């Protein structure tokens, strides 16, 4: 879809805005709205369900029995890793001290205002590396572009329609990814608990959640195939990853998400700290996340080669197995199977749903059905052959989502900064 431009433009005098429509104003944000941090609220007062939503720096935090605001407002994250992000609140709600409430002092369209603030990329103005935060005064003094209210309404209507279309396409790709991931998981689960030969006789495993397994497989505890089990070190690291193979880094817990080891998920070790070489990753190391959300805790992956300058963090377990009894990739696939995952999620504990833990005993005491090592390797190779195509389709869908999100961002920015004239679009939509 192509869009017209406004008839006349002028230089805004603001670098990121460039030229803007000639009849739009360029003024400081404080001329159209007041920005004020919300009110403090303790964690004990926030519940999972309740009458009024509580919004913090990253959006919805939970619910409480009181409210601080009533209406349709734009909220800006004031503090934290996502400071500068934009959310909307409608109706009665509590804005916490980590959210900045944007209250218009002139007639403005709320969606236009929110998307303009999003286009301003407010996170770039954060200060303090340890705990990023925004200065309300500094943000208030930023200059922005303000169209007439009729143009704001046209832009908001346009974005409501067009963004909804893009979001629906994103949703379709996300649903496809979910279905593909479930198919991949089913392939893995069947292979590591039933084997590759459908004609093999089976026996009861003695565990209801595991069911029947091939008769010639042994049932052992994981602890009987493990020769070492340890966790690492999490010093205060840089906010960026290590560069190259020679710079020291500490792995992040997300390096095992998805079942494949991702070495780029690390943080550089500051030059003032001495590395611990013994924590460097070796080929065949099986890594397990010991602390994460309930859906991700216990995620597992195997390093297929050595990364001697990437160190184990304390939120990861490193497991080394006795190679004559167990193949590390087979154990990895088993721990990511449906039966094993069900037990890991049940055993995970923690006060916060966003961070639960599993102890070493959860893994070590877990029963595992073991064929001979040769068969284990054959099963792993078969899984890879069967799932390669699924993984390729997931990657393609993820790429489509990234492109749609880029399109979404570009469309919003173009509309709110006047690079495209959407007034005729709004008129045609109303006529239709």
CATH topology of the largest domain: Adenine-n6-DNA-methyltransferase TaqI, Chain A, domain 2
Give the CATH H-level superfamily of the largest domain. DNA methylase specificity domains
Which structural class should the secondary elements be placed in? alpha+beta
Count of discrete structural domains: 3
What is the C-level CATH assignment of the largest domain? Alpha Beta
Question: Uncertain regions: pLDDT < 50 for 5+ in a row?
Answer: none
Strand content: 25-35%
What order do the strands of the largest sheet run in, or round the barrel if closed? Answer: 4-9-7-8-5-6
Q: Tell me the overall shape.
A: elongated
Overall description:
The protein is α+β, with helices and mostly antiparallel strands. It folds into three domains: 1-24 and 147-195 and 380-432, Helix Hairpins (Orthogonal Bundle); 25-146, Adenine-n6-DNA-methyltransferase TaqI, Chain A, domain 2 (Alpha-Beta Complex), CATH 3.90.220.20; 199-370, Alpha-Beta Complex (Adenine-n6-DNA-methyltransferase TaqI, Chain A, domain 2), CATH 3.90.220. 32% of the residues lie in helices and 25% in strands. It has helices at 110-119, 136-140, 149-194, 328-335, 338-347, 360-364, 373-416, 423-431, and strands at 9-11, 19-21, 25-28, 33-37, 52-56, 59-64, 69-77, 86-95, 99-104, 143-146, 202-204, 212-214, 218-221, 226-231, 249-251, 266-268, 280-281, 286-289, 291-292, 300-302, 307-311, 316-321, 349-352, 355-357, 367-370. The protein is elongated and about 80 Å long. The model has no long low-confidence stretch (mean pLDDT 92).
């Amino acid at each position: 879809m192509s869009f017209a431009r406004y008839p006349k433009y002028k230089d805004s005098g603001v670098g990121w805005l460039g030229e803007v429509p000639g009849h739009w104003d360029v003024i400081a944000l404080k001329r159209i709205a007041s920005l004020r941090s919300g009110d403090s609220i303790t964690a004990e007062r926030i519940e999972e369900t309740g009458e009024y939503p509580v919004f913090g720096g990253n959006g919805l935090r939970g619910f409480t029995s009181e409210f601080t605001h009533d209406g349709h407002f734009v909220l800006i994250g004031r503090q934290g890793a996502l400071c500068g992000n934009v959310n909307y609140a409608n109706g009665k709600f509590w804005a916490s001290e980590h959210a900045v409430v944007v209250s218009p002092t002139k007639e403005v369209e709320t969606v236009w205002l929110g998307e303009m603030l999003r286009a301003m990329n407010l996170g770039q103005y954060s200060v303090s590396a340890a705990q990023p935060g925004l200065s309300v005064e500094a943000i208030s003094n930023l200059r922005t572009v303000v169209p007439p209210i009729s143009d704001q309404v046209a832009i908001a209507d346009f974005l409501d329609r067009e963004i909804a279309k893009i979001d629906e396409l994103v949703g379709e790709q996300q649903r496809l990814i979910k279905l593909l991931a479930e198919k991949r998981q089913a392939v893995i689960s069947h292979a590591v608990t039933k084997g590759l030969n459908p004609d093999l006789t089976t026996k009861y495993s003695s565990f209801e959640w595991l069911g029947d397994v091939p008769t010639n497989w042994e049932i052992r505890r994981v602890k009987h195939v493990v020769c070492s089990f340890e966790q690492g070190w999490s010093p205060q690291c840089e906010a960026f990853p290590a560069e190259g193979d020679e710079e020291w880094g500490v792995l992040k817990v997300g390096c095992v998400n998805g079942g494949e080891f991702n070495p780029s998920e690390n943080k550089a070790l500051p030059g003032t700290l001495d590395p611990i070489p013994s924590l460097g990753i070796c080929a065949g190391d099986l890594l397990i996340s010991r602390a994460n959300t309930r859906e991700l805790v216990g995620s597992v992956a195997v390093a297929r080669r050595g990364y001697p300058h990437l160190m184990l963090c304390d939120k990861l377990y490193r497991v080394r197995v006795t190679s004559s009894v167990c193949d590390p990739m087979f154990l990895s696939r088993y721990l990511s199977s449906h039966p094993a995952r069900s037990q890991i999620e049940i055993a995970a504990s923690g006060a916060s749903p966003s961070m639960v833990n599993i102890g070493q005993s959860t893994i070590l005491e877990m029963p595992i059905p073991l064929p001979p090592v040769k068969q284990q390797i054959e099963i792993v190779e078969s899984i890879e052959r069967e799932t390669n195509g699924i993984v390729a389709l997931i990657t393609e869908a993820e790429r489509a989502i990234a492109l749609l999100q880029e399109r979404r961002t570009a469309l919003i920015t173009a509309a709110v900064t006047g690079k495209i004239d959407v007034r005729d679009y709004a008129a045609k939509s109303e006529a239709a």
